[in-house]
Amino acid sequence: MHNVNTDALRATHAAAQADPASARQAVRFDGSWQVEEGAPQFVTEIPLPDGSSVSFAADFPPPMGGRGQAPNPLAYCFWGGLACYAMSFAQEAALAGVELRSLRATVTTDFNMGYALGVGEDPPVERLDWELDVDADASPEQLEELKAAADAHCPGAYCIRNPVELRTSLAG
To answer: What is the tens place of the pLDDT at every residue in 62-115?
Structure first.
């Protein structure tokens, strides 16, 4: 339904209920700083389940020392969260039998460069606003229920709302 494989989703849900360990996935990405002048600053290949990969590049905007030739790292963070939320909403709608004709998602925020530049203590981002524009044969109450389910189940929303332990290290 509307590009969600509900059979696979229900099978994964059943497997996770029977064995919670089956819901865990190891994730590992790496990337490389590009030392050549004019190249996007950081690049990687993100693996896909079918064994292929997608190229990602990140470049700071000119005020932060880059050339702006690729999305900045926070753009991926903001977009990733938004994509996860919209996809969670679409999944919840499909599971509830609500057909989506269209779903458009928007993220807005203000970014304070002072923290990254070391000239301020104010948070770089204080709030993210995610808005969904939904076209479906559903009542406003049904859409609110789907939104509440996406709010409750979206991993991206969870990671933004809750501190996640971060450990940094140097190889070697």
So the answer is: 999 999 999 999 999 999 999 999 999 999 999 999 999 999 999 999 999 999
* Fold of domain 72-165: GMP Synthetase; Chain A, domain 3 (3.30.300)
Which amino acid belongs to residue 52? S
The span from the CA of 47 to the CA of 19, in Å, is 26
Which residue type sits at 35? V
Compute the Cα dihedral for 71, 102, 150, 4 and give only its sign.
negative
Q: Which two tokens stand for residue 93?
A: 């709608």
Residues 65, 157, 161, 164, CA torsion sign: negative
- Contact by Cβ (8 Å): 57, 45: no
What is the token pair recorded at 137? 């044969």
Question: What was the pLDDT predicted at 103?
Answer: 98
Two tokens, residue 107: 């993220």
Ranges of each domain in the chain:
31-71, 72-165
